[in-house]
Amino acid sequence: MEFDWRLPYPSRRVPLLARNAVATTHPLAAQAGLRMILRGGNAVDAALACAIALAVVEPVSNGIGGDAFAMVWDGERLHGLNASGRAPAAWIPQRFAGLEAMPERGWDTVTVPGAVSAWMELSGRFGNLPFQDLFVPAIEYARDGFPVAPDVARQWAMQEDILAGQPGFAEAFLPGGGAPAAGEMFRFPEQARSLDRIAETGGEAFYRGDLAQRLADDAREHGGALCSDDLAAHRADWVVPLGVDYRGVTLHELPPNGQGLAALMALGMLSCWDLSD
Question: What residue numbers bound the domain in which 273 lies?
């Protein structure tokens, strides 16, 4: 069946009035967060369920192999989490000697994935629900399938030519030889099994278990430097956010290696100017 995804009809925006609200770039991810609220979870539980679901329903924008940054207000103070992974220990200067720029594709662009460690840390410190509960919606989407959203289909198609030659991408993300169309059902049972292993082991399988070994084996097979020791050594860092006061408002950002410092610098410069002119 053919659909017109241009949405030619006028629409009106109205405010959402509710005790709790969840906003994401994908309605299925937002539903995952609301399911956690309905189970008695808090905002952190909802945010984590959303993030895990986005790894499934927006696969060319998010993923288990990504990094994560977070700031959490606990009612009294602000906490910062930097869950970006370090470079593999074998990334010494000689490995990239002679290159004019760092590679853009392949294993020599891959640092230790930090997102899973963020899920572990945030759930353990602030969550109300059991860690495994956060994965239920995402595992269902991956195992049973979900209809691909129009924007996701467009992004997926844009990545097809760029990533089709990367080992494993076509097998996982180009079913039938191409990117799924809007409205097409996409299933990824292998991803469901990986998420299930992360859930049942509290994340340990990803850094010090069978999933970590599979990552290391694949890296070695395709000339990558990432090894099991790199994964086992990974830790997310709790950090103190930086703040700048600007015209009666304080903006908080994470310190480097995040890019929030640039926003604080910009506000510091703007504070010297009368923008009303």
Answer: 241-277
